Amino acid sequence: MTPPVLRQRIDGIAFDLDGTLVDSAPDIRHALNSALHKAGLRTFDLDTVRGWIGDGPDATIARALVAQAIDPTNAPGRALCDHLRRAFDMTALAAPMSLGHVFDGIADMVAELSRDYACVVVTNKPTPLARALLNAAHLLPHFSAVFGADEPAQRKPSPLLLRAAAERLGLATGALLMVGDGHADLQAAAAAGCPAVLAGWGYGASGWQGPPPWRMDRPAELPVQLATCQNTLLHF
Question: Are the CB atoms for 166 and 12 separated by under 8 Å?
Answer without folding.
Answer: yes
